């Protein structure tokens, strides 16, 4: 079934343009409320958001839809995505909603949906929602006496803070550590510094003055230069960079070196394996994770299971095969012993626990392997299906054959933007660069322009 609304992470787009319009948001509320309106109890939905200006508009539209469908709405205000997943379960809600476009610029926004178990919805349920959205949605409205109520419950952010604190081992405190954190002017600007301070750290915070339009602007996990500068200024032991909805994290070590999700997963997996709490004898990551991670794990007797890009696919594989560590190179780290989705702050606390227990520096903890040369380029296209062109198919086949023994090639369309992502990695940097550039040129000559 062709998807009209949902991408790899909910519904996403530029605010006030299809599909991110108030009208569609209201229809989503009605459709989702209809599907999850089961039984005769008072149904409830929790709605969180990041700090984008358009969050007010979409929040109110969703409230109109859900209450029209007969659900009571709990408005959480600005709060991280993993907090919405946690509170959906904690409050026994029927559905959880996060209004966010994650690491994207402020002009974008999105709607992420969680089921009553705190997990993102399956493809099958998303297809049901899409079918309702294109149907006579107003036939699903609740009768007048069943219209839902809405109320704001901002105090529930403290439930999340306490939850985060409990993920740090009981024998560990953060006393003696100076932590610099960049909240990306996003959803974690209140909760992340508070949790770290309450755990004993000396906290230096940047990216904590959201104004509706500065989320992810030259800050956060996609722009860590600001955190690197602050870390040097205050001589912090570690830098933590979250993204706009705080479901991903990038670490900066004491030397100012950036540590990505692959290195974080390697550190956590090895530590948990030593503590005999790692499940599945390995971890789950996507096709974009570096070959160096796979080789590192193999040397430790651990496995790397790869999935399609998107943390939801990582989580699905983890659930099906009983893994408890997974994630993406971009910094989505999923630790299923603690939560149902990526949580940047919880992942950072696991690294801090290693630092405190071993007495080692962050650079010693977080640089477990040397990544093989990897290059990713995007090709923007305006229409059509460039990857189905015969010339493109042949060029891809030739590149795969050339890399077969000492590297990998991954070519895929973006789930959120009109882009073809071309990634190659291998032991020979010049070969990798040549292959990627040649493929970008071939794909670009069909119907696109290199981005």
Structural features, described:
The chain has 14 helices and 20 strands. Helix 1 runs parallel beside helix 2 (54-68). It has 451 residues and is an alpha/beta fold. A seven-stranded mixed β-sheet has the order 1-2-6-5-3-4-7, with helices on both faces. It has a five-stranded mixed β-sheet with strand order 9-8-10-11-12, with helices on both faces. A four-stranded mixed β-sheet has the order 14-13-15-16, with helices on both faces. The chain has helices at 22-35, 54-68, 81-90, 123-133, 157-166, 191-198, 225-234, 261-274, 291-299, 311-321, 344-358, 362-366, 390-403, 429-447, and strands at residues 6-7, 10-14, 44-49, 72-78, 95-99, 108-114, 150-152, 178-182, 202-206, 238-242, 249-252, 258-259, 282-286, 303-307, 325-327, 333-335, 374-381, 407-413, 419-426, 448-450.
What are the key terms here?
451 residues, alpha/beta, seven-stranded mixed beta sheet, 14 helices, globular
Layout of secondary structure:
Layout: E1 6-7, E2 10-14, H1 22-35, E3 44-49, H2 54-68, E4 72-78, H3 81-90, E5 95-99, E6 108-114, H4 123-133, E7 150-152, H5 157-166, E8 178-182, H6 191-198, E9 202-206, H7 225-234, E10 238-242, E11 249-252, E12 258-259, H8 261-274, E13 282-286, H9 291-299, E14 303-307, H10 311-321, E15 325-327, E16 333-335, H11 344-358, H12 362-366, E17 374-381, H13 390-403, E18 407-413, E19 419-426, H14 429-447, E20 448-450
Parallel strand pairs: 3-4, 3-5, 4-7, 8-9, 8-10, 13-14, 13-15
Antiparallel strand pairs: 1-2, 2-6, 5-6, 10-11, 11-12, 15-16, 17-19, 17-20, 18-19
């Amino acid at each position: 079934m062709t998807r009209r609304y949902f991408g790899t992470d909910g519904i996403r787009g530029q605010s006030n343009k299809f599909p991110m319009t108030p009208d569609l948001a209201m229809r989503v509320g009605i459709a989702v409320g209809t599907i999850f309106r089961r039984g005769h109890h008072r149904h409830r939905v929790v709605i969180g958001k990041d700090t984008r200006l358009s969050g007010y508009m979409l929040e109110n539209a969703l409230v109109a839809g859900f209450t029209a469908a007969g659900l009571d709405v709990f408005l959480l205000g600005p709060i991280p995505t993993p907090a919405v997943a946690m509170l959906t379960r904690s409050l026994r809600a029927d559905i959880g909603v996060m209004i966010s476009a994650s690491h994207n610029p402020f002009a974008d926004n999105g709607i992420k949906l969680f089921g009553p178990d705190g997990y993102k919805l399956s493809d099958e349920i998303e297809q049901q929602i899409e079918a309702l959205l294109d149907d006579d949605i107003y036939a699903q409205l609740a009768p007048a006496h069943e219209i839902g109520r809405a109320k704001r419950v901002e105090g529930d952010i403290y439930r999340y803070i306490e939850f985060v604190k409990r993920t740090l081992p009981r024998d560990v405190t953060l006393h003696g550590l100076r932590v610099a954190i960049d909240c990306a002017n996003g959803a974690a600007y209140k909760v992340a510094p508070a949790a770290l301070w309450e755990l004993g750290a000396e906290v230096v915070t940047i990216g904590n003055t959201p104004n509706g339009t500065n989320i992810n602007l030259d800050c956060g996990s996609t722009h860590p230069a600001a955190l690197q500068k602050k870390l040097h200024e205050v001589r912090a032991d570690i830098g933590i960079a979250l993204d706009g909805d705080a479901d991903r994290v990038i670490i900066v070590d004491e030397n100012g070196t950036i540590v990505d999700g692959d290195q974080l997963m390697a550190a956590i997996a090895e530590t948990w394996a030593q503590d005999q709490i790692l499940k599945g004898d390995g971890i789950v990551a996507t096709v974009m994770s570096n070959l160096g991670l796979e080789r590192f794990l193999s040397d430790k007797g651990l496995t790397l299971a790869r999935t399609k890009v998107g943390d939801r696919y990582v989580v699905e594989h983890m659930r099906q095969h009983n893994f408890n560590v997974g994630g993406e190179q971009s910094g989505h780290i999923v630790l299923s012993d603690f939560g149902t989705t990526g949580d940047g702050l919880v992942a950072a606390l696991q690294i801090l626990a290693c630092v405190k227990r071993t007495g080692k520096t962050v650079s010693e903890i977080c640089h477990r392997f040397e990544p093989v040369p990897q290059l990713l380029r995007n090709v923007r296209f305006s229409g059509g299906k460039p990857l189905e062109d015969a010339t493109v198919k042949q060029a891809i086949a030739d590149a795969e054959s050339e890399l077969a023994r000492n590297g990998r090639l991954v070519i895929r369309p973006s789930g959120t933007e009109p882009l073809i992502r071309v990634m190659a990695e291998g032991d020979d940097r010049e070969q990798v660069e040549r292959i990627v550039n040649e493929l970008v040129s071939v794909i670009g000559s069909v119907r696109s322009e290199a981005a």
